[in-house]
Design brief:
Layout lengths: L1 H13 L9 E3 L6 E2 L23 E4 L2 E4 L4 E2 L4 E7 L3 E9 L20 E7 L6 E7 L5 E7 L16 E7 L2 E9 L10 E12 L4 E4 L15 E7 L7 E16 L2 E6 L3 E11 L2 E7 L28 H4 L20 E11 L2 E10 L12 E11 L3 E12 L2 E14 L3 E14 L2 E15 L3 E10 L15 E13 L6 E15 H5 L6 E12 L4 E11 L9 E7 L2 E6 L6 E11 L6 E14 L4 E14 L5 E13 L6 E17 L2 E14 L12 E2 L8 E2 L3 E17 L2 E12 L10 E12 L2 E2 L1
Parallel strand pairs: 1-3, 2-15
Antiparallel strand pairs: 3-6, 4-5, 4-14, 6-7, 7-12, 8-9, 8-13, 9-10, 11-12, 13-14, 13-15, 16-17, 16-18, 16-44, 16-45, 18-19, 19-20, 20-21, 21-22, 22-23, 23-24, 24-25, 25-26, 26-27, 27-28, 28-29, 29-30, 30-31, 31-34, 32-33, 32-40, 34-35, 35-36, 36-37, 37-38, 38-39, 39-42, 40-41, 42-43, 43-44
């Protein structure tokens, strides 16, 4: 009791001398138009708010709870001081925590999701559509990115990195951080006097709460439209904004040959990235021979439906910077299609109310169809604002590969009305010539969404023509039409209740063959879900989703399936006749712990009588994903992830497939810019011979009518991937990476006694950011 009283007395002592009322802006009182003072000083960012200029700063206080329940005063007191100079804007944060349970670790950049943190959203064009995000944990470790309305609502894209300064320290009353964001790192309006949108978010891991300076409400279609404003900013000078980022990389790869291991490569490759801030609202980027960025293997995925492709995130610095200017409702710009560019250029910015993104790239000839041509990509994305929060956009992409080409052109719109409603529309057309075969088809989508606090709905329909192609984008499946209807009901608990938030989402989804839909035929798939999510006091989360599904198999996918039959002349192959539609039931759920001081965990599971799309039969599915984060010290992080999937044929109990993917990542943070990392991922997958579910006969399969039938074969792989990395990254763009990766295999799963090295490699990367 005495330590708690002492802590409360210390908090009161810090707040004993209130600032003048003219400097204080209380969010709960809707004092959201902030006139921040301008000072000629430039200060050292050391995490201590002891310079005299902080006493003249504007003070943002009066935070509200946003999640799990909105509309309540925040349980924790937060004070954010703001001022600016000609070159930068400064933030000083005092975050009070009377319980002394601040979560803070020394972590790599963008890895503070388990820590207490303060996030600053700066809408520098003051349009309520997009914002820069700068986040800092109590020790000053940084995370940054962008947040755009209409794309992953409620989530930020942490791929972009910006140069800014931050320091922090844990105190007796909570924590204190100091932040300097140079105007060189921002894009903003060209006006002499301008207003910026602003909101401050505080994440408190002890309670699992998200708190905001403005009294933001969940029942609004736009979060950024509920921001406050920094008013009357003027005389901001960026100076020359020219970043030169030369880089050198080297890779050595080894494979086993008959006479031993053969290693190739090692010759250094040189490249350069250039960023020129032509104007405050326009940036030109260029790159020659950009670097690789995959310093560890992508997290393993198990394809459960062979009709859908899988995608992986972009991590290369040139492509992630300004990527928000190329976002579309569907992924029509997927830069990982550009595999090994020789050179590329990109223009991003804003002209009036219109965002502009232009990208051109020349890819390596090894990625062309002929192996001799150099594929060329050209992308233009325009998006303009209208109304209070609405947008309209246009997209054009093309890929030219020798005599082949693919072009996509179209438009989209996001219309906000009555504050709670969002209408999103998109329609594009592709034109392709694939080796003499000319194809053309549309992709279109329409969605209406009501974001009410206690009741919401989302109705959507999306169609992808069988001849639609996108050489620069990612569409996981064509020749489908997908309607979806979802109703959401949310109940909120009282402040002292165990249940803080219970949300039910009742959804009906269908998948149709594109042409059959217009002919009036029924769906290939019809799925009913009742998703329940529970936010409990203290940060616990539960989920439970029963589902009911009816499946009719697509004849086009099984056109190459056949069976062997005894005829008068001997054995013959006859086409496979699809079975009747099937009905499946299942239950999925999950449990997520709070972010304890040293541990957090997550469990997801599915048990179901599921469909086997490979064989057109039933399987009993058991799928479990376990994930745990352990932080034994403030410098060590251990992440463990285990994925298990098992499919068993119900008729004879035989196993159709299994997948086991354990993954362990261990990081030791020597200092803020330096860490060591080791990742081990074991992928064990088995799949039986494909069999007719009614007779048990093995399938014969051919790729086309001109190819012969061949028997399906069983598949098995047991691979271990090891990746080790030393990283030194004092600022974005200035890095030194030294890494080693090795792939091993063994005949029996998870034995670890007969592993044989298949290939390995070493890599180095050195780059330096010259900010002129």
């Amino acid at each position: 009791m005495l330590p708690l009283l002492l802590t409360l007395w210390q908090v009161a002592a810090v707040q004993a001398e209130p600032p003048p009322d003219s400097l204080v802006y209380n969010g709960r009182l809707n004092e959201l138009a902030v006139e921040i003072p301008k000072a000629p000083a430039e200060i050292e960012v050391d995490g201590v708010l002891d310079e005299p200029v902080w006493n003249t700063a504007a003070i943002l206080t009066g935070f509200s709870q946003y999640s799990p329940v909105d509309g309540r005063p925040a349980e924790d007191s937060t004070e954010v001081r703001v001022w600016y100079s000609s070159q930068a804007i400064y933030f000083g944060v005092k975050a009070y925590d009377a319980y002394g349970s601040v979560r803070a670790t020394l972590a790599d950049r963008d890895r503070i999701e388990s820590d207490d943190q303060v996030r600053i959203l700066l809408d520098t064009f003051d349009d309520g559509r997009g914002a820069f995000l700068f986040a800092v944990n109590p020790l000053g470790v940084q995370a940054d990115g962008v947040r755009n309305e209409g794309v992953g609502f409620g989530r930020a894209d942490h791929s972009p990195d910006f140069v800014f300064d931050s320091e922090g320290r844990v105190t007796d009353y909570g924590y204190e951080v100091e932040i300097r964001i140079p105007f060189k790192s921002l894009r903003y309006q060209a006006a002499s006097v301008q207003d910026w949108g602003i909101n401050i978010i505080r994440i408190v891991q002890r309670t699992g709460q998200e708190q905001t300076w403005t009294p933001a409400r969940r029942g609004r279609a736009s979060f950024l439209a509920q921001s406050g404003k920094l008013v009357g900013l003027k005389d901001m000078r960026r100076g020359l904004v020219l970043d030169l980022n030369p880089l050198a990389t080297a890779k050595v790869s080894g494979t086993e040959e008959a006479d031993g291991w053969d290693y190739g490569g090692g010759t250094p490759e040189f490249g350069v990235n250039v960023r020129w801030g032509m104007m405050p609202n326009f940036t030109l980027n260029g790159t020659i021979n950009p670097d690789f960025s995959q310093v560890e293997a992508d997290v393993g995925q198990v394809p459960v439906d062979p009709r859908f492709a899988v995608s992986f995130p972009e991590k290369r610095p040139f492509f992630v910077e300004g990527s928000e200017n190329f976002n579309t409702p569907n992924d029509l710009v997927y830069s990982r299609r550009i595999g090994a560019p020789l050179a590329a250029a990109k223009l991003t910015g804003r002209m009036g109310a219109t965002n502009i993104g232009i990208l051109s790239a020349v890819d390596d000839e090894s990625l062309s169809r002929s192996g001799e041509d150099r594929p060329i990509y050209n992308i233009v994305r325009l998006r303009t604002n209208f109304g209070e929060s609405s947008t309209a956009g246009a997209i054009y992409t093309d890929k030219i590969d020798g005599e082949s080409f693919n072009r996509v052109v179209g438009g989209d719109a996001r219309i906000i009305f009555a504050r709670q409603y969002e209408l999103q529309l998109q329609g594009v057309q592709s034109f392709s010539d694939d080796g003499g075969e000319t194809l053309s088809g549309p992709l279109w989508e329409a969605t209406i969404d009501r974001t009410g606090r206690t009741f919401g709905l989302r109705y959507s329909i999306k169609g992808v023509h069988p001849d639609f192609r996108t050489g620069a984008g990612f569409v996981n499946r064509t020749d489908i039409l997908r309607p979806s209807l979802t109703h959401r009901f949310t109940r909120f608990g009282s402040p002292d209740a165990l249940l803080q938030n219970w949300t039910i989402r009742a959804s009906m989804n269908g998948v149709y063959d594109y042409n059959e839909f217009f002919e009036g035929r029924g769906p290939l798939e019809a799925l009913l879900r009742l998703h329940n999510s529970f936010d409990l006091s203290g940060g616990w989360r539960l989920q439970a989703t029963p589902l009911l599904e009816r499946v009719r198999f697509d004849p086009a996918f099984y056109a190459g399936y056949g069976l062997e039959r005894l005829a008068a002349a001997g054995l013959d192959t006859v086409p496979f006749i699809l079975p009747d539609p099937q009905v499946n039931i299942g239950l999925s759920g999950g449990l997520e712990t709070p972010q304890f001081k040293r541990f957090s965990g997550k469990l997801d599971f599915t048990v179901a009588r599921d469909v086997n799309y490979f064989e057109t039969g039933h399987v009993r599915l058991t799928a479990v994903t376990l994930e745990a984060d352990w932080r034994p010290t403030d410098r060590v992080r251990v992440n463990g992830r285990y994925l298990h999937q098992r499919r068993v044929r119900p008729g004879d109990g035989s196993r159709f497939s299994t997948a086991n993917i354990p993954r362990v990542k261990v990081e030791y943070q020597v200092s803020r810019p330096m860490f060591f990392r080791l990742v081990a991922q074991y992928t064990s997958q088995e799949r039986d011979v494909l069999r007719d579910p009614s007779t048990g006969q093995p399938f014969l399969i051919r790729g086309s009518e001109s190819e012969p039938y061949v028997f399906s074969t069983a598949r098995s792989s047991n691979d271990l991937r090891l990746d080790a990395l030393f990283s030194y990254q004092p600022t974005p763009g200035t890095v030194f990476f030294a890494g080693y990766g090795s792939s091993l295999a063994e005949p029996e799963p998870l034995r670890l006694t007969d592993l044989q090295r298949v290939n390995d490699g070493f890599f180095l990367k050195l780059s330096y950011l010259f900010r002129l």
